[in-house]
Amino acid sequence: MGGDPGDRLPPERISETPGDLQQQVEEFGQETAGLLSATLPGLPDPPVRILRYENRTIIGPPDSKPLPLYARGQHLADMKLSVACQLDHAGQYLAVEESTFNLLAVLDRTPVFRIHYRRESPSRPTAHVHVHGHRGALSHLLSQAGHDFPHDMSSLHIPVGGSRFRPGLEDFIQFLICECRFDALPGWQAHVEAGRERWRRRQAAAAVRDVPEEAARVLRELGYTVESPDPPPDTALKALHNW
Amino acid sequence: MTHVQDVTLRSLNRRRKAILDRIGMSYEELAARAAKRSLIGDEWAAWEEIREIDFLRNG
Question: Among partner residues A56, A66, A109, which is closest to B56 by beta-carbon distance?
Answer without folding.
Answer: A56
